[in-house]
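Is this the right way to post structure tokens for a design question? Let me know if I should format differently. Anyway, here goes:
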């Protein structure tokens, strides 16, 4: 039975079903990370600790996993087409149709939640509707906000303050452009050298703690080294994924989906690792995850297959909701965090029911948007823009 996504683009190659499922698992872990991020921050500020919930302290590394998956899937889907007359225009058309409808929806939801929150920055100052609309316009066209700019409407120095995670799509688009312009032309040997150099730069960046944050959670702002950190954060996994797609040979692994999911869960749950001498130990851990473990997970996941109707449906569902869930959930986190501050709720145990409601609501909305917005809009755009 064909997946919904495959129906939209009938000429696409078959999906790696387990990779679709793993993308969904990573999106769920990001959701859990962001729901509990507020508790972690509030608890730290107010000196309240809560051991009643598993904190995915490294949940932001899911973005790096997404980039590796994107590189692998794009290399697999398009590398062999360029010699058959495939054009840059067609590539960009396909990528925009695949990604931008949900980028637009995420921006609209971001505006709605910001207005519902009262149109105020975190410092309490009111934001005129005109600036909110300017922020919407810039998000729709992926124009990032500089820290302190008028359309940084939340005042957090985010590139896209109506929908923070849109920063990764900004870099994804840059990666798409670089792939179409020159990366697809590289031989496998040259691509391997480029990937190795980028890997060494990534290891240096994280282990030297170049940003002074003790983590690789960079790219979401244009402040300091964040832009170049974001570029590096996209470029290594992106090229690594493309390299994997070229040299990939399946290895038989029993229970590949569950094994890979468990490894990701355990890695994300590792506590922050203290220590900066002679190098940042947390940076070493994150570099090892991105450079070694995530490519291995993609390799094993691509080697596996679903074995029955139930596992196929699970992976299909997770793959279907993965991108919508990632790109629409964070505006609701803004509301959730504001509610926590207003009601002085600092621990998960103080309102576990609300956390469950927030997560379940986001998952349900992501699926509804996939079925009744993303899928039909992409199908319509594909029909309208395909050259006869």
């Amino acid at each position: 039975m064909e997946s919904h996504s495959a129906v939209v683009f009938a000429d696409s190659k078959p999906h790696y079903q387990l990779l679709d499922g793993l993308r969904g698992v990573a999106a769920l872990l990001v959701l859990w990370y962001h729901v509990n991020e507020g508790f972690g921050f509030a608890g730290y500020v107010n000196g309240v600790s809560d051991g009643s919930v598993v904190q995915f302290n490294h949940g932001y590394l899911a973005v790096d996993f997404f980039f590796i998956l994107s590189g692998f899937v794009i290399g697999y889907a398009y590398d062999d087409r360029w010699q058959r007359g495939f054009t840059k225009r067609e590539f960009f058309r396909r990528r925009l149709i695949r990604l931008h409808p949900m980028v637009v929806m995420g921006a609209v939801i971001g505006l709605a939640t910001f207005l519902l929150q009262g149109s105020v920055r975190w410092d309490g100052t009111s934001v005129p509707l005109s600036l909110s609309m300017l922020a919407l316009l810039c998000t729709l066209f992926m124009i990032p906000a500089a820290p302190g700019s008028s359309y940084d409407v939340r005042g957090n120095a985010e590139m896209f303050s109506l929908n923070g995670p849109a920063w990764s799509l900004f870099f994804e688009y840059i990666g798409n452009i670089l792939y179409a312009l020159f990366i697809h032309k590289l031989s496998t040997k040259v691509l391997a050298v480029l990937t190795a150099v980028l890997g060494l730069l990534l290891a240096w960046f994280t282990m030297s703690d170049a940003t002074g944050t003790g983590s690789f959670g960079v790219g979401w702002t244009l402040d300091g080294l964040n832009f170049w950190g974001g570029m590096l954060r996209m470029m290594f996994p992106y090229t690594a994924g493309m390299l994997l797609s070229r040299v990939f040979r399946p290895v038989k692994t029993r229970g590949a989906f569950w094994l890979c999911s468990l490894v990701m869960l355990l890695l994300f749950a590792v506590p922050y690792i203290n220590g900066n001498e002679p190098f940042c130990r947390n940076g070493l851990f994150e570099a090892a995850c991105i450079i070694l473990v995530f490519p291995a997970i993609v390799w094993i996941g691509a080697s596996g297959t679903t074995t029955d109707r139930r596992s196929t449906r699970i992976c299909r569902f997770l793959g279907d909701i993965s991108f919508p869930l990632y790109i629409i959930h964070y505006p609701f986190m803004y509301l959730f965090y504001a509610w926590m501050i207003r009601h002085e709720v600092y621990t998960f145990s103080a309102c576990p029911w609300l956390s469950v409601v927030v997560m379940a609501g986001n998952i349900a909305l992501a699926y509804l948007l996939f079925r009744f917005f993303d899928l039909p809009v992409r199908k319509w755009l594909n029909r309208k823009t395909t050259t006869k």
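Format looks fine. Someone answered above. Worth noting: Confidence is low (pLDDT under 50) at residues 1-10. Residues 4-385 form one domain.
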